[in-house]
Amino acid sequence: xxxxxxxxxxxxxxxxxxxxxxxxxxxxxxxxxxxxxxxxxxxxxxxxxxxxxxxxxxxxxxxxxxxxxxxxxxxxxxxxxxxxxxxxxxxxxxxxxxxxxxxxxxxxxxxxxxxxxxxxxxxxxxxxxxxxxxxxxxxxxxxxxxxxxxxxxxxxxxxxxxxxxxxxxxxxxxxxxxxxxxxxxxxxxxxxxxxxxxxxxxxxxxxxxxxxxxxxxxxxxxxxxxxxxxxxxxxxxxxxxxxxxxxxxxxxxxxxxxxxxxxxxxxxxxxxxxxxxxxxxxxxxxxxxxxxxxxxxxxxxxxxxxxxxxxxxxxxxxxxxxxxxxxxxxxxxxxxxxxxxxxxxxxxxxxxxxxxxxxxxxxxxxxxxxxxxxxxxxxxxxxxxxxxxxxxxxxxxxxxxxxxxxxxxxx
Length: 411
Description:
Radius of gyration: 22 Å
Structural class: alpha/beta
Largest sheet: 9 strands, mixed
Shape: elongated
CATH class of the largest domain: Alpha Beta
Distance between the termini: 31 Å
Number of helices: 12
Mean pLDDT: 88
């Protein structure tokens, strides 16, 4: 989904967890931490996983790139997620090490031949995606023409209904799909078709249109398809981005799947990433300086707020102050701690107008891509993480999230 500005995501996946027992974000602020503090909510990730396991009309596999924390992987596994979408050999190794019984699906359409070979021979990976004849040949060479492969041909579909496009880099073009599907069918034990409508799809129509493209491809190639994988794109809720209920997406996908000309035993898959982990974590930051409507905080574009800086994503925010401010909200932008002008989050982020240096702010919904994108650029960063039991600022899985602090669970 993202272009990484660092390779530290996997290396920093396992954070330090404090053992102090505190009540929640406001108690973290009372300790006056110098560095940002990450709050994680295993119960929120578990709830999201159970929602998909119980309600999605097929198999849900977690897209590891969204947040590769081993702690999170274990929460999802314990909540019923048994399949994992891995996009690199490092992710393959991570999940194999953390969850030895998990099923790994190598869903990056362009892989190093050495990575394919290790994934197949060492880690038992049998599911691979591809979008070209060259990649098909590479997979067959690396696996010595294995007869037990599930090959998923990725179609190029529109991202017009999504906040972040994934329509230009991967996916076989319509005029090339017929030949690739035919050749993959000859080589595969099971043939799949997959696609990705883009990240944060704001309407179920995105999947309806993509499934029509799947129908056309199957008819034109005249092949038997065993798997239809609708990819990711399932949304979470952010300020200014309140999507329909996820059940609406599931119903649309199920209707389209049932109407496809496929085998009666064909399987329906999905690859939720953001939707499973966005509510998992938030970060507590300190205001180091106020300059008009600009707040200088101690996390930013090279930390957990990559999306806020580089694609203008807005996240929910709350001023952590007792007693609570009674001043009405005002729009602010943020500057992060580095010396880089690009370390700027335009927002707007709505906070009480009297916010000042020394105040602490909780920034929510950072479980997806926040931790994964962190670096230590310019010497800034933090590895303090606290497990809390309060509700996330926003949730698609509870009707009205209550922001009442509870006791912290410590490792």
